[in-house]
Request: fold
Amino acid sequence: MEISQPEFDQLVRQIRELTARVHRLETLLRVSPPAAEGPGPGRAERVEPPPPIPSPARPGPPAFVAAPPSKEHPDLEARIGSHWLNRIGIAAVLIGVSYFLKYAFDNGWIGPAGRVTIGLIAGIAVVLWSERFRTRGYKTFSYSLKAVGIGAMYLSLWAAFQLYHLIGSGPAFVCMLIATASTCALALSQDAEILAVFAITGGFSTPVLVSTGVNHEIALFAYVALLDFGILALAAFKPWRRLLWLGFVGTLILYVAWDAEYYTRTELQPTLIFATLFFLVFAIAPLLMLRQERGAGMMPLALAFVNAAAYFLQAYAMISEISRTAMAWFSLALAAVYLALKHLRPRSSDKAAEANLRLMHLALAVGLITVAIPIRLEAHWITIGWFVESAILLWVGNRIKSDLLNVFALSALILGVGRLLLYDNFYNTRLLLNLRMLVYAIAIGVLGLIAYHASKRSDDLARSVGRIAAVILNILALRGLSLEVADYYSKQMSAVRPGSWPVANWSDIRIAREFTYSALWMGYGAMLMAIGFWRKSAFVRWQALILIALTTVKVFAYDTSELDRIYRILSFVVLGVLLLAVSFAYQRDWLKLSARKTYSDAGDAAQS
Reply:
């Protein structure tokens, strides 16, 4: 059979390409070609290879020379030439055509119906024409043309409804819905996420394009919910995570725009139902992201957090103006939802990302519980609520061995302590048995619980947290007792009548108050020192020494000049007795500190 010259040239090119591929594979696998062997005894003669196929055309490179590998990633020049120039060219063509059409419209060459018809036909034609480029391998250019065609169809339908009033809102809405569904079908058939993005963008633009300025809440949100469920279905079968974010942003924009324009309190029930429906859709979305291929990164966590924040703020704006109690219960119910979501298993291949999402759900649940406390409670009960929450989280965290819950417990405790020290004001009529001492007692109890659990652990971080909790515990106890002293003497001062020796009475009360402060601090320091010796805790003894040192400074620097003679004598005597007692305890070496020092010195000498 005779072979034509073009077929012969093609055959030679294929042989060269196959030879180059074999050479690259041998180089990659480090396989050496077999060495040529001459004839020998017991060895068959070497079969000569067939002569190379002569090329009647111009001489080419040797058949066994590997072709240079092509670049897999296009450089900046290729990207600019193939992508950006393409997009700029399309934009330029659109602008030119727009100017021409405007000129034709302004001169009355084309009527309204003709303009709309031209736009629709041009849009459909561009979409069909783009398929020719896609089949030839120019996918990027094809999708760009499809974007132009789809946009032309939407704009034409909008002009037919809004500008020229050729059709009503119903037919325009149906036509745009058909365009959206067709684009989605095209995206699925071609496995093209960018086409799905075009479809979703057109879908969310449809209510805006066919808006009549009249409130149609049920129709609008039912359509948006249907669109969101469609996005959820697409994301369940295709790894198109960006569609979920696009759906969330589109839903939020339409909801906020409607709310700012039309919402009234009478529409609370249907609005809250639709907001809840949107929330549930995008609460499931992060789980679908995890079921897709690896590389989800922070997208599921970010969507979970933003969705929770948006829904909570929407509900707060609607419910809190009616009932703060109902809003607090709503926050607790939402926390229960996230606790339920924490136990869902999306069967993800990325176990680390799945664990992070569960932690995010847990954090959102705890955060909602923390927020519910100041929503429902008032004044000092907010502080008490945070302390109780801290104790519960600490207990649960230690039962299930969760360091994250312990961190949340510490966070709630910090909120409570901060509010107690910086914000809360108390008006008490009783000494000690009052609301302030109740709040301080709860705070001290929680801090003691933290210190106790931390002492049971062996890691350094837990022990450091336990020591900090013990220090704050003592500071709060001393401050609470000092405030009781201040309140007691303030009432004594206020009971003094304006004409009955005011100077003498006020001075006596102030001197008694300062002495009571010194006595309280010395007594508390002595108690800490006794506990330190009893528990054999150097940490507690150091706290006692610091407090006694501060009290000593106060007695010598302040009480000497300010207190009356009797109180001054009592201050020095009590302080002296306390210092002597502490000194005697150390000199008796009840804790065998000298033995420890001798053993430590001997160990250091042995090492040296």
